[in-house]
Design brief:
Shape of chain B: globular
CATH superfamily of chain B: P-loop containing nucleotide triphosphate hydrolases
Strand content of chain A: 25-35%
Order of helices and strands of chain B: EHEHEHEHEEHHEHEH
CATH class of chain B: Alpha Beta
Largest interface: A-B, 46 and 52 residues
Radius of gyration of chain A: 17 Å
Largest sheet of chain A: 3 strands, mixed
Number of strands of chain A: 6
Distance between the termini of chain B: 44 Å
Oligomer: heterodimer
Number of helices of chain B: 8
Number of helices of chain A: 2
Largest sheet of chain B: 7 strands, parallel
CATH topology of chain B: Rossmann fold
C-alpha cells in the first residue's frame, strides 16, 4: 500500500503550488498514472478522501489519467502497447524492448480558486 | 498513520474515513488552471540524492536489501558480518513494521545496528534512512547495509540513496517471483538466490528462475547462495569487496 504515501505526495505537491498562487482551495487535481508505474489508481482514489480532509484539497475532484504502457523493440522494430514490465519482445523473442511510456507518476494540472 | 510526512511538517489528517464521495460531485466552475508536471516521487528522490551525496563524501558503499518476508535477508547479513567483520567496517539499518528483533540479531554480532520501525508503512523511504544514518559514525564505516521491509512491491519505488538494490529470493518461493513482481527485480543490480541447500527437496527450477529474472532485468547479476551452509557466499563476499574497492578509489 505505498499508494498512501503516493497520495500524500499528490496533496503535498498540490498544496505547495496552490499556496504559492494564494489559492483558497483546490477544485481539482489531475494526476497521470502509468500502467507500468506499479501504482494502482483505485487505491490512490481510496486514499485521497482520507488524506485530503482538512487540506486545501478537501472536496477537490481527483482526476486520474491512466497512461497505457508502450514499447519498441530495438532488434526487430516491433512497437505496440504492453501492459506488463518485460524486456521480452513479443515479435522476435529477444530481450530488447525499450519502454516508450507507461511509467508516468505525475501531478499534471491543478484547478484552483 | 501517515508515515511519509516530512520532519517538521504538520499533517492533520482526520482518522475518520468518509466514503461519501463528495469530491466527485462538486463542479468546478471558474477555477484557474495551473500546469504542474511534478513527479510524485520528487520529494523522496530529492532526499535520496542528498543521502547519496552524503554517503559518497564518506566513500561509503551502500546496499538496499529487498525481498519478501522470510527469504533470509537477516540471516545473510548475520553470516556476512561474522565472516567479514575483521576485514570491513559495517553498519546496518534494519527496517520492519514492528519490533527491534532484527537489529538485536545484528547487534549480537557486534556490528553497529539501528532499527527503523515503519509502523503502518510498507517500505523505507529516503527520509527515514537519512535520519537512521545519523546513528552511525559514517567516517569509520565502509559498507552500510539497509535491510528493507520484507515486501516485494512498495520498496521498489523508493530510492534510498543506495549504490545498489540487492534482491534476495529463496528457493522455497516460486521461481516466477521475478515475473510476478517485476518492478522489484528490475530495480535490483544483484539477485541472490538463497537457501540452495534446499534444492533437492523443493520443486524449484533455478535456471527457469534466472531466465525469468533476465526477462525483467537483462543486466542483473545472479549469485546462488546458502547462508545456512555457506555455499556460494564467497562469490557474494567478492562482489562486496569489488563494489567497495570501486567506491573507495581516490
Amino acid at each position: 500500500m505505498h499508494e498512501l504515501g503516493i497520495t500524500q505526495s499528490i496533496i503535498e505537491i498540490a498544496q505547495d503550488h496552490a499556496r504559492a498562487e494564494n489559492a483558497a482551495q483546490v477544485l481539482s487535481v489531475t494526476v497521470e498514472i502509468g500502467a507500468l508505474s506499479g501504482v494502482v489508481p483505485d487505491a490512490v482514489e481510496f486514499c485521497f478522501e482520507a488524506c485530503s480532509k482538512e487540506t486545501l484539497l478537501d472536496g477537490a475532484r481527483l482526476i486520474i489519467e491512466f497512461v497505457p504502457g508502450r514499447a519498441r523493440c530495438s532488434a526487430c522494430a516491433w512497437e505496440d502497447q504492453i501492459d506488463q514490465l518485460t524486456y521480452t519482445c513479443p515479435g522476435c523473442g529477444n530481450l530488447s524492448l525499450e519502454r516508450l511510456q507507461g511509467e508516468e507518476l505525475r501531478v499534471k494540472e491543478l484547478e484552483i480558486d | 498513520m501517515c508515515i511519509d510526512c516530512g520532519c517538521a511538517e504538520h499533517h492533520h489528517h482526520s482518522d475518520e474515513h468518509h466514503h461519501d464521495h463528495t469530491h466527485d460531485q462538486r463542479p468546478s466552475p471558474g477555477g484557474r488552471k495551473l500546469s504542474i508536471g511534478e513527479n510524485l516521487l520528487a520529494k523522496n528522490d530529492r532526499l535520496a540524492a542528498a543521502n547519496r551525496a552524503r554517503f559518497a563524501a564518506q566513500r561509503l558503499f551502500v546496499l538496499n536489501l529487498v525481498s519478501s518476508p522470510g527469504s533470509g535477508k537477516t540471516s545473510i547479513l548475520e553470516r556476512t558480518l561474522r565472516d567479514l567483520q575483521d576485514e570491513i567496517n559495517f553498519a546496518v539499518l534494519e527496517g520492519d513494521q514492528q519490533t527491534s528483533n532484527d537489529a538485536d540479531r545484528i547487534a549480537a554480532t557486534g556490528i553497529p545496528a539501528h532499527q527503523i520501525n515503519t509502523g503502518a508503512g510498507c517500505h523505507l523511504d529516503a527520509h527515514m534512512v537519512g535520519h537512521g544514518a545519523d546513528h552511525f559514525d559514517l567516517a569509520t564505516t565502509d559498507i552500510l547495509m539497509i535491510e528493507n521491509v520484507g515486501n516485494l512491491v512498495c520498496p521498489a519505488a523508493f530510492d534510498l540513496g543506495e549504490d545498489h538494490k540487492v534482491a534476495v529470493l529463496s528457493v522455497t518461493e516460486g521461481e516466477d517471483k521475478p515475473l510476478k513482481y517485476p518492478q522489484m527485480f528490475q530495480a535490483a543490480n544483484l539477485l541472490l538466490i538463497n537457501k540452495i541447500d534446499l534444492l533437492p527437496y523443493v520443486p524449484f527450477d533455478i535456471e527457469t528462475c534466472k531466465t525469468f529474472a533476465r526477462q525483467v532485468n537483462p543486466a542483473v547479476e545472479i549469485l546462488e547462495v546458502s547462508c545456512l551452509k555457506g555455499d556460494g557466499m564467497d562469490a557474494w563476499y567478492q562482489w562486496l569487496r569489488t563494489g567497495l574497492a570501486k567506491k573507495q578509489q581516490p
